[in-house]
Amino acid sequence: MTVEADVRAFIQANGDAFFADLAEWLAIPSISIDPDRADDVRRSADWIAGALRRAGFPAVEVWPTAGHPAVFAEWPAAEPDATTVLVYGHHDVQPVDPVELWDTPPFEPTVRGERLYARGASDDKGQMLFHALAVRAHLAVTGRSAPAIHLKLLIEGEEEAGSPNLDSLVRGHADRLACDVVVNSDASMWSKDVPTTCTGMRGVVGARIVFRGPSSDVHSGSFGGAVRNPLTELCRVLARLHDDQARVAIPGFYDRVAEITEAERDLFGRLPFDEREWLAKARSRVAYGEQGYTTLERVWARPTAELNGIWGGHRGPGLNTIIPSEAGATVTFRLVAHQEPLEIQHAVRRWVEDLTPPGIEAQVEFYADGVRPILTPLGHPALGAVTRALERAFDREVLYTREGGSGPSAVLRDVLGAPVVFVVMTVPDDAYHGPNEKVEMPLLLKGAEAVAYLWDELASPGELR
Amino acid sequence: MTVEADVRAFIQANGDAFFADLAEWLAIPSISIDPDRADDVRRSADWIAGALRRAGFPAVEVWPTAGHPAVFAEWPAAEPDATTVLVYGHHDVQPVDPVELWDTPPFEPTVRGERLYARGASDDKGQMLFHALAVRAHLAVTGRSAPAIHLKLLIEGEEEAGSPNLDSLVRGHADRLACDVVVNSDASMWSKDVPTTCTGMRGVVGARIVFRGPSSDVHSGSFGGAVRNPLTELCRVLARLHDDQARVAIPGFYDRVAEITEAERDLFGRLPFDEREWLAKARSRVAYGEQGYTTLERVWARPTAELNGIWGGHRGPGLNTIIPSEAGATVTFRLVAHQEPLEIQHAVRRWVEDLTPPGIEAQVEFYADGVRPILTPLGHPALGAVTRALERAFDREVLYTREGGSGPSAVLRDVLGAPVVFVVMTVPDDAYHGPNEKVEMPLLLKGAEAVAYLWDELASPGELR
Description:
The structure is a homodimer of 465-residue chains.
Chain A: H1 3-26, H2 38-55, E1 59-63, E2 70-75, E3 84-90, E4 110-112, E5 115-117, H3 125-142, E6 150-156, H4 166-172, H5 174-177, E7 181-184, E8 196-201, E9 203-212, E10 218-219, H6 220-223, H7 230-238, H8 262-269, H9 275-282, H10 295-301, E11 304-313, E12 322-323, E13 326-335, H11 341-355, E14 361-366, E15 374-375, H12 381-394, E16 399-403, H13 409-416, E17 420-422, E18 438-440, H14 441-457
Parallel strand pairs in A: 3-6, 3-7, 7-17, 8-16
Antiparallel strand pairs in A: 1-2, 2-6, 4-5, 5-18, 8-15, 9-13, 9-14, 10-12, 11-13
Helix pairs in contact in A: 1-3, 1-14, 2-3, 3-14, 4-13, 12-14
């Protein structure tokens, strides 16, 4: 028998028990943004802590935060110089409204065919629990009493609330969380037929730009045409955010941008991208963006500036003939490696100041420090290990994606100084965040299988950092 | 004795009675936008109707409208082919809040020095009532039993509410209101030491432009950079409303604009304009507008485009990382002779359509038909008659102003086909619309005097239309 056959047999034999356990966990409505569910989030933490203990983890702790608790579990390798791996995910879930759109109650897990329906089935309880099955398969097949790598799990309880305490949690426990590589299991794969792993996430900087003109609204008949209108001037500046090739026109914005490599571009190009399907998800009729890049490259590998909102003067029905006293807008910049949020903030501020005309007072504020982008290059040994593990599990070529959004991985990478790789089994039609969230049950078992291989692959991966 | 000495003597002799009458009228709180004051507006109409009858007008009628009543008075000339003059003004007043800022109660008329304080003292009851005194002086001094012109007065009751029924009122009574010239007594003079008359008012077109992109808000991390953002595109279009010389950049916008004449420019230039005072009123730090024109020319004699409000996506605190589904703005265009509101609407619509990129659906709506500008050229005989009448009353040179705003005069001009001239005795520091509204009592008497001359001057003015 091959190792693969042994791993599959073990996982198959334990599949029913795995899904029974998962259903128990999914029945706990651990909605982190709902204050009335705080006890449930706590119960959810306790549940996964117990499950990890039953799986054999010698050390499992529930870590309090200023909000909801996280769970930390650790299973040291026998070898003192083994690679240390930190798995990241979360045990809290999204709200369920509009609950009337669910075919079965969100916290009564229901199997239909090969799918398990419940809030949290894919995001992220299913992907967390397969790690408990994976390490048991790894041990059973290798005959080890401890994993080939020093295994740590961090399962936070506030990811769906924006991880407000993750930074202080990670900094406060940096010694316990120290690792050589982070395995993120909170993202999605291309599709169930196209196994992929994610190589990076965009960072983000959020800005609020306010222009002030007259000290109060003044009549546009009496004064129109003879003083600066802050709303007009704001539009004139925001219109210059992009050039005619849809590139961000802020000086210095692209200075540190790592160009997409030909290899990555080729691999992205092999993904079965269907523009019509994508446009349906984007609720748009035409694709449009930076010239010279495909849609996937634009959302994954290129930085952007997007206006998120604007306000100023009259809104609503009717006319109000004023020159408004002020106008403002929020803009988010998505960043790619190796843009630095603080440098981008500086560039944005200087750009606004340079374009602000006399008679207008500009104010530029940023929402916190922003989030740095993460990118694990294709040649990275940790990514190689993940690729091999997935290829063994799926028996087919593994391709690469990135995420256009921004996530907590950057905190782990920055604080712990470790590269981030992804083992994720959620697929886009799993409706995470929406009604009728589900998970493909065979994929969760593939996830367990892939991770069982991954601990071997990472035991001697080459230079990780 | 000269005619002037006789007129002055008559007005002087009747001044106390005039102000006693005015105080009685000012005590009626005829606030047209306050539904609780409808009875008071009605009482105000009845009061001025009675006062005009007492002054000798042979025909006085209270005309109902869908809102508040107007008053019409008529005093035919003895000569059947006499010039017909329609005086326009209003008997309703602005609200009084914040009432605590008034030094004396707004509806308890109070004399301090040469000033009479009350809501409506200058806008517009004082300027209406002096017409009753003026016609009596005109008759007394000329020895006529009927005025030298066929005199009509229209005193509406909804001007401060935007004259919502004026158009239908004027159209419904067009035969009764037919005239050769309209004398508007609802505007302001430069200052009490600088007698002026107004030669025109700007017209207005109000537009609402909405851009629609994705059929619902979408996540700016997942889709940002790869679809059109309707807010960004709206800003890009609105930024092109003006060129770098602050001219409106809509093709055809200036096609019909009557350039200010050198004579008018010279006369405007002789007004004692103080930019610091003007900026204080504009609540602005610097003047800015179309290159090649002074501030007064910009607000009086040049057309403009002003953004009055904008909306779209997130507003308020915090970030919301979306590409908004739609964004919109309101814009008002102030027009000068001989721009046509419907042509401007057409030009605006075509301009927006031409600039709307693929993937964006643009919607352009206009608020009613707009208001046409009015302009009575400096050489017009009616303006000559007003100028001579004012010069006789003030014993000094009369200069010219215009109004940046838009008013009901355009309705009278358009429906009745008559030129509009202005005899106005309000001055900018009269605080009409604000707390402590007042009127300069000697100016009201000057107004009566000027109008007493004006009926003679207009008796044979030359070709009026």
